[in-house]
Amino acid sequence: MSARGSATYRRLLEVAARELAENGDVEVATIARRAGVSVGLPYRYFGTKSGMLRAVVTDFHDRLDEAVIAREFVGDTWAERERARVVAWVDHLYGDPLAPVLLGRLGDADSDGVATQRLHAAIRCGARNVARGQRDGDLHAGRDPELLVAAVLGGVHTAVTVALSRIPRPAPADVAAQLWAFVAGAAGVAERTS
């Protein structure tokens, strides 16, 4: 893709993300109008409305991965590193206008498929992380890392979805503190450090 094509793609993606955050859905004609391009141009880059949604969801998860999931946090223990990850996770989602929409289901099979794939990738990454904590003696070794992470991510995901839907929203620091208590309890941090 040329530099001009990349810039156009990026602009369309940003407009689609804003439209989705503001209205909970996208219409190709609206995106084209807001981006100042012909109605046919978004189809050139995304193929379909579903393709556009898939691109927005993929971009959202790419940013989440970079900011939180794939990031190495500093700390001497698993608990120190993961407490920082929980805070970063909440802060990132609170700061992303797409989070309230994308943490739920869009009802688009392609987009929901991307979200499911990314969740499974996060579970695999988290399972490796928990296994490391178990090897290092920071976590109880008798728990299945993959099942533990699946349960924790499901709980964190749902809790953040609830927090983002409240009016007024609870403070991110309060949400992160409550989520950390949940994660630490589920992982057995308290029983290993006491």
TrEMBL record:
<dbReference type="InterPro" id="IPR036271">
    <property type="entry name" value="Tet_transcr_reg_TetR-rel_C_sf"/>
</dbReference>
<dbReference type="Pfam" id="PF00440">
    <property type="entry name" value="TetR_N"/>
</dbReference>
<feature type="domain" description="HTH tetR-type">
    <location>
        <begin position="6"/>
        <end position="64"/>
    </location>
</feature>
<keyword id="KW-0238">DNA-binding</keyword>
<keyword id="KW-0804">Transcription</keyword>
<dbReference type="InterPro" id="IPR050109">
    <property type="entry name" value="HTH-type_TetR-like_transc_reg"/>
</dbReference>
<feature type="DNA-binding region" description="H-T-H motif">
    <location>
        <begin position="27"/>
        <end position="46"/>
    </location>
</feature>
<keyword id="KW-0805">Transcription regulation</keyword>
<dbReference type="GO" id="GO:0003700">
    <property type="term" value="F:DNA-binding transcription factor activity"/>
</dbReference>
<protein>
    <submittedName>
        <fullName>DNA-binding transcriptional regulator, AcrR family</fullName>
    </submittedName>
</protein>
<dbReference type="GO" id="GO:0000976">
    <property type="term" value="F:transcription cis-regulatory region binding"/>
</dbReference>
<dbReference type="InterPro" id="IPR001647">
    <property type="entry name" value="HTH_TetR"/>
</dbReference>
<dbReference type="InterPro" id="IPR009057">
    <property type="entry name" value="Homeodomain-like_sf"/>
</dbReference>
